[in-house]
Amino acid sequence: MARGNTRQRIQDVALELFAEQGYEKTSLREIAEHLDVTKAALYYHFKTKEDIVISLFRDLTRPIDELIAWAEQQPRSLEAKQEILRRYHAALIGAAPLFRFMQENQATVRDLSIGETFKERMVTLTQLIQEPDFPMADRVRCISALFTMHAGMFFMQHVDGDPEEKRAAVLEVAVDLVTRAHQGARG
């Protein structure tokens, strides 16, 4: 099997086990057993559980980093901010397994280096969708737009309805918040 495939399988199985039984309760031995490989084969790719989580975080958040790089080159228009939200929404959907892990293992995430990195990304994104001269209520609307999408990842799963319809509604509300903030500040 190609190295990339093995690495991906390790990440997938580890993420599944971390979500099911928690990061702390999952051992490298268990991950190796689920993959039907030796611990030595696992060590070839990852020395520690933290290495696995950090690699997952890097792989699944690459689209968010690419979005930030793209957004920093855009005009500070309402249309650009709406597109930032649409692209962020797509990135969140792609990284859903990682966000489930983060939700289920909050203490671990705080202790690992990824927690601080994630917070930095959020601060950058909030700065990209608002303006420093916005009134406070409009700045709160912009920040709330991002957290509406995060809440949608976790809490909308408990709301009856079509998953696609729920995702579209979450994006619609987030875009509406930024649009209202932009119109309120400029109007």
Element-by-element helix/strand order:
HHHHHHHHHH
State mean pLDDT (0 to 100 scale). 88
Q: Radius of gyration in whole Å, from Cα?
A: 19 Å
Structural class: mainly alpha
Runs with pLDDT <50, length 5+? none
Query: How does the overall form come out from the CA principal axes?
Result: elongated
Please report which band the strand proportion falls in: under 5%, 5-15%, 15-25%, 25-35%, 35-45% or over 45%. under 5%
Number of strands: 0
* Portion of residues within helices: over 70%
Biggest beta sheet attributes: none
Quaternary state of this entry equals single chain
Give the distance, in angstroms, between the N- and C-terminal Cα atoms.
60 Å
Given the structure, what is the number of helices? 10
Structural write-up:
With 187 residues, this protein is mainly α. 80% of the residues lie in helices and 0% in strands. The protein contains ten helices and no strands. It has helices at residues 3-21, 28-35, 39-45, 49-71, 78-94, 96-104, 106-111, 113-129, 136-155, 163-186. Helix 1 (3-21) runs parallel beside helix 6 and helix 5 (78-94) runs antiparallel to helix 10 (163-186). The radius of gyration is 19 Å and the shape is elongated. It starts with a helix and ends with a helix.
